[in-house]
Amino acid sequence: MFEHLKTKFPELTDHWERYAHVYKREEVPARTILLREGEVSKRSFFIETGCLRAWINNQGKDTTFQFFFEHEVISSAESFRKNIPSMCTIETVEPSVINVLTKKDYELIMADLKTQPELLSNMLDITFERQLHYMREFLSFIRDTPQERYLNLLREKPQIVQRVPQHYIASYLGITTVHLSRIKNKILKEKR
Q1: CATH architecture of 3-115
Q2: Which pLDDT does position 44 carry in this prediction?
């Protein structure tokens, strides 16, 4: 399960192996809700295979704000850490294999890690990477047109375009599926 993390942080291999047993492996079908908006999160998910999305209810329509793929962790962090209602829903997009960490096991790991500053430092780096990603996404929505956001998606995250249904991509870009089709057609014509 932790092969990707061992490659990324080889100095922490012993730590990953020490905590691997607390993760519970689950095979989950597509379109399975793992956490509903408004519920308090008691679990965090490490994706072994598959794709998950985080979305919010926006006046009766779901609006996707993030996709997660293999070797990524997803949770409603504020809910998981602070025991407050989740601001988002977490759902599988395709059949997925996930490794689940419960809040109770997370707290045991955190208590153990207080004596291991190098691991905490690496975990903070991961958190800051995620924060930087959210800042870029936020600024893109302010600065870029829907077509520019789609072109960025093609360039920076082609796996989304290859693996995610069009209606989720349109939701992620903040447009309708009809508008997304027009953008794709316009890009094709410009390439000819």
Answers
A1: Sandwich (2.60)
A2: 94
